[in-house]
Specification:
- It contains nine helices and 13 strands.
- It has a domain of 208 residues: Rossmann fold (3-Layer(aba) Sandwich), CATH 3.40.50.
- Helix 3 packs across helix 4, helix 4 packs across helix 5 and helix 5 runs parallel beside helix 6.
- It is α/β, with parallel strands linked by helices.
- The strands form two sheets. An eight-stranded mixed beta sheet has the order 7-8-9-3-10-11-13-12, with helices on both faces. Strands 1, 2, 4, 5 and 6 form a five-stranded antiparallel beta sheet that branches.
- The longest helix is centred in the middle third of the chain and has 18 residues.
- Bound molecules: adenosine-5'-diphosphate and magnesium ion (MG).
- The site of adenosine-5'-diphosphate has 16 residues, from strand 1, strand 2 and helix 1.
Length: 320
């Protein structure tokens, strides 16, 4: 059973330059208890998808969707107040760079406590304090460090505290936006395995957002590849890694020399921004695609290659 299904989500930002379509008719499903990795380079719309699911877009953002069903409930039909009640309890988010946004003049424990008191007001103070202590233990912050200030923490510890905050209301879904990006390699692995073990222990589903395909390779059951606001391929980890069907997915995989040597320096791939002329018509990847053909001026349909593996490319399953 799917915990989350997203059907044709579109998000636009209004700016002085006009209207930017940051997310263009994106659909995917996240099975209960699994981890879905949303991968794509900077600017491809990953954080926007996270914010839209939380319904926390900036004021100039507009979203529409044919459906967003979370745990059997259609979120698009909910009013603001109903959505506010679902936030943190049903779906929470570890925002990109949140670990650097901790309040520098407040003790870390007090900040987690404040989050719990705000989102679970029905807990009395002693019970909230007990749960906060438990969360510090679960994310691996020693007891004697709870009362520290954020600057006394390492980056990894700050990220652990932010994860504790996001999980403190036992959400069914947690969206983790680039949770390891600012951290060194060893700490990255620690944070990813922490998320993995919390997922199993707490029976959560995770939407893991990363620009780094090797990060999602480690922990995700399913992977969705985003390019210029469009989902160009999605499938199980195995399908995407062993039989990548979209030329862009192959470019991403090739940039990571081998998975064994996954910490090699990735090449960056430049992309036409969503606002670039021509990006709206035809395949979003055609200007960079090594296999581009005249038909790619028309928007490619979504081809299902298996029940779980799909690709948005005219070549469909014949592209290998
Ligand atoms: N508040 C905003 N106003 C206007 N454009 C925005 C805003 N936030 C993001 N964008 C644009 O939307 C696109 C997707 O951004 P984002 O979701 O942050 O991508 P990612 O997380 O994949 O790096 C980018 O082109 C970005 O410039
Ligand atoms: Mg982002």
């Amino acid at each position: 059973m799917d915990l989350l299904t997203v059907d044709n989500l579109t998000v636009q930002y209004l700016s002085r330059r006009g209207c930017v379509t940051a997310v263009d008719r994106v659909s995917f499903a996240l099975p209960r208890g699994q981890c879905f990795g949303l991968v794509g380079e900077s600017g491809s719309g990953k954080s926007t998808i996270g914010a839209a699911l939380m319904r926390l877009l900036p004021p100039n953002g507009r979203m529409r969707a044919d459906g967003i069903v979370l745990d059997g409930e259609e979120l698009t039909r909910l009013g603001e107040e109903e959505m506010r009640q679902r936030r943190w309890r049903k779906v929470s988010m570890v925002f990109q760079a949140a670990m650097n946004a901790l309040n520098p003049v407040k003790r870390v424990e007090d900040q987690v406590m404040e989050a719990v008191r705000t989102h679970l007001p029905e807990l009395g103070t002693p019970e909230a304090a007990r749960q906060v202590r438990q969360w510090f233990a679960r994310v691996g912050i020693p007891d004697n460090r709870r009362r520290d200030y954020p600057h006394q923490y390492s980056g990894g510890m700050r990220q652990r505290a932010v994860i504790a905050m996001a999980l403190s209301c036992h959400p069914a879904l947690v969206i983790a936006d680039e949770p390891t990006t600012a951290l060194d390699v060893i700490v990255q692995d620690q944070i990813l395995s922490l998320l993995g073990s919390l997922r199993r222990a707490r029976d959560m589903s995770i939407l893991l957002i990363s620009h780094d395909i090797s990060v999602v390779a480690d922990v995700c059951d399913r992977i969705g590849v985003l390019y210029a606001g469009r989902m160009v391929e999605s499938g199980t980890r195995r399908e995407v890694f062993e039989a990548p069907a979209h030329p862009y997915t192959r470019t991403l995989l090739a940039a990571h020399i081998t998975l064994a040597d996954r910490r090699g320096t990735p090449k960056t791939v430049s992309l036409p921004g969503p606002e670039e002329p021509g990006a709206a018509a035809g395949c979003c990847f055609r200007q960079r695609c090594p296999a581009c053909q005249p038909i790619c001026r028309q928007s490619p349909p979504w081809h299902w290659l298996s029940r779980t593996h799909g690709v948005r490319c005219h070549k469909g399953d014949r592209s290998t």
